[in-house]
Amino acid sequence: MLHLVTGGSGSGKSAYAENCCLKYGGPCLYLATMKIWDEEDRKRVEKHRAMREGKGFDTCECPVDLEKLDIPEHFRSGTVLLECMSNLLVNELWREDIPDASAGSMDETALEKHPETGFATDRQAVNGKKKDGQTGDGEHIAGNAARDHDTEVRILRGIRHLADSCRHLVIVTDEIFSDGIRYDEESMRYLRVLAALNRDIAEQADAVTEVVFGIPVPVKGKNGRKEYV
C-alpha cells in the first residue's frame, strides 16, 4: 500500500505520517533523505529524531539512489517511511557524480531509455510547458529538461523499488506551490520537478492526505475520499 502525505512547513505532516506507520503495524523503517549542511539542518534532524524516539523506528540514511537500497528482510512485511521527497529531489537534481544529460529536446521515446517505473511521467510539466503545447514561463533549456526528466525517472524507479520491497510505503512530501512568488529559474526548475513527482506518485498512490494545521484532510483513498487511517 502506497500512502502519500503532503503539507506545508510545520503543518504536522511528519507526525501524522509516523502515526500512520504505527497504525499500519509491523516493523517500521525510517528512510532519512536529508543531508546536513549547516546548523539549521542539524537542528531539524535532531527535532525529527526526538519525534520518533520511543516509537520503534529503525533509521536508515538514504540521501540518493533509492533503487539501490536493499531493504532488510525484517522490514518487508512492515512499513517504510520515506522522509522526505523534497530533500531527496535536491540531492538527486544537483548531484555531481552523474554527468549532465545530453542537450536536445525530449522526444516521445524518452522513457525507452529507462527501465519501467510503473509511473506515468509528465514530460510537459518537467519541461515547463503548458498542456496546450505553449511555452510556460521560464522554459528550461534543453539540457536541463533532459536532466530533470532523468532525475524524475530515477526517483520514480526508486519509489517503485521501495513499494515492491515492503507491505506499506508512506512518503512525505511538501506543499510549497501556493505562495504566489516568482523565484529564480533554478528554484522554479526545482518546483516544476517536485510538482511532477507529486502528481506521478499521487496518481499511483492508494491514499493521499494533505495535513493542514495538524488536521489530516483526505484527498484520495481506497473508498472514494475516505481516508485509510
UniProtKB/TrEMBL annotation:
Task: Give an example GO biological process.
Answer: cobalamin biosynthetic process
UniProt-listed Pfam families: CobU (PF02283)
**Top-level EC class:** transferase
List the active-site residues: 48 (gmp-histidine intermediate)
The record's listing under InterPro entries reads: CobU/CobP, P-loop_NTPase
**EC number annotated for this UniProt entry:** 2.7.1.156, 2.7.7.62
A GO MF annotation of the entry reads: cobinamide phosphate guanylyltransferase activity
Task: Please give the catalytic activity noted in the UniProt record.
Answer: adenosylcob(III)inamide phosphate + GTP + H(+) = adenosylcob(III)inamide-GDP + diphosphate; adenosylcob(III)inamide + ATP = adenosylcob(III)inamide phosphate + ADP + H(+); adenosylcob(III)inamide + GTP = adenosylcob(III)inamide phosphate + GDP + H(+)
| Sequence positions that bind GTP | 7-14, 49-52, 61, 83
Q: In which pathway does it act?
A: Cofactor biosynthesis; adenosylcobalamin biosynthesis; adenosylcobalamin from cob(II)yrinate a,c-diamide: step 5/7; Cofactor biosynthesis; adenosylcobalamin biosynthesis; adenosylcobalamin from cob(II)yrinate a,c-diamide: step 6/7
> Which keywords belong to this entry?
ATP-binding, Cobalamin biosynthesis, GTP-binding, Kinase, Nucleotide-binding, Nucleotidyltransferase, Transferase
Describe the function of this protein.
Catalyzes ATP-dependent phosphorylation of adenosylcobinamide and addition of GMP to adenosylcobinamide phosphate.
Q: Which family does it belong to?
A: Belongs to the CobU/CobP family.
What is the name attached to this protein's record? Adenosylcobinamide kinase
